[in-house]
Amino acid sequence: MSKQIIIATKNKGKVREFEQMFAKDGYEVKSLLDYKDIPDIEEIGETFAENASIKAETLAKALNEVVIGDDSGLVVDALDGRPGVYSARYAGLTKSDAANNEKVLKEMQDIPSEDRTARFVCAIAVASPQENTFIVEGTCEGVIAREPVGTNGFGYDPIMFLPAFDKTMAQLTANEKNEISHRAKALQQLISKWK
């Protein structure tokens, strides 16, 4: 019998990252893309943790299974924390990565280098029909680049510059990203807590 983990997301980039991270432990990852009859889950929380919990708990109840919910995004200090929980739809409801990046870069165009600090934040919630939901969080610090660079990853990866690597997140290989990303850090906490 195969081990299976259900992730409450339709984001193909997130699904791919979860698959890569759980593959070494022999888990098959399922997502909302595999459950076409489940309606979209509205993210009405004010924090990443609230949204992750809403997604996980809604799907856990619908499927009567243990479900992982993930909510993540970009927090830019000079923009008072925006895009924050609105990261996926920052430039509009069409959820365009390119448009979101363009909007952040436009808002940051006059911000000096020393004030361009930002971080990716990931909250992961594990919900079960029989247990209380638990939540872990991870962050990845960086600065907002002046222009998009790199073609790997998704979302804001091309504009998130990591000084320690002298690269944007989108210039890292999948293996490199899966070692240091906000999602990787949250998953490391999740795995130690889950065991």
Automatic annotation (TrEMBL):
<feature type="active site" description="Proton acceptor">
    <location>
        <position position="71"/>
    </location>
</feature>
<keyword id="KW-0460">Magnesium</keyword>
<feature type="binding site">
    <location>
        <position position="71"/>
    </location>
    <ligand>
        <name>Mg(2+)</name>
    </ligand>
</feature>
<comment type="function">
    <text>Pyrophosphatase that catalyzes the hydrolysis of nucleoside triphosphates to their monophosphate derivatives, with a high preference for the non-canonical purine nucleotides XTP (xanthosine triphosphate), dITP (deoxyinosine triphosphate) and ITP. Seems to function as a house-cleaning enzyme that removes non-canonical purine nucleotides from the nucleotide pool, thus preventing their incorporation into DNA/RNA and avoiding chromosomal lesions.</text>
</comment>
<comment type="similarity">
    <text>Belongs to the HAM1 NTPase family.</text>
</comment>
<feature type="binding site">
    <location>
        <position position="72"/>
    </location>
    <ligand>
        <name>substrate</name>
    </ligand>
</feature>
<dbReference type="InterPro" id="IPR029001">
    <property type="entry name" value="ITPase-like_fam"/>
</dbReference>
<keyword id="KW-0547">Nucleotide-binding</keyword>
<keyword id="KW-0546">Nucleotide metabolism</keyword>
<feature type="binding site">
    <location>
        <begin position="9"/>
        <end position="14"/>
    </location>
    <ligand>
        <name>substrate</name>
    </ligand>
</feature>
<dbReference type="Pfam" id="PF01725">
    <property type="entry name" value="Ham1p_like"/>
</dbReference>
<keyword id="KW-0479">Metal-binding</keyword>
<feature type="binding site">
    <location>
        <position position="177"/>
    </location>
    <ligand>
        <name>substrate</name>
    </ligand>
</feature>
<feature type="binding site">
    <location>
        <position position="42"/>
    </location>
    <ligand>
        <name>Mg(2+)</name>
    </ligand>
</feature>
<feature type="binding site">
    <location>
        <begin position="154"/>
        <end position="157"/>
    </location>
    <ligand>
        <name>substrate</name>
    </ligand>
</feature>
<dbReference type="InterPro" id="IPR020922">
    <property type="entry name" value="dITP/XTP_pyrophosphatase"/>
</dbReference>
<feature type="binding site">
    <location>
        <begin position="182"/>
        <end position="183"/>
    </location>
    <ligand>
        <name>substrate</name>
    </ligand>
</feature>
<keyword id="KW-0378">Hydrolase</keyword>
<dbReference type="InterPro" id="IPR002637">
    <property type="entry name" value="RdgB/HAM1"/>
</dbReference>
<protein>
    <recommendedName>
        <fullName>dITP/XTP pyrophosphatase</fullName>
        <ecNumber>3.6.1.66</ecNumber>
    </recommendedName>
</protein>
<comment type="subunit">
    <text>Homodimer.</text>
</comment>
<dbReference type="GO" id="GO:0036220">
    <property type="term" value="F:ITP diphosphatase activity"/>
</dbReference>
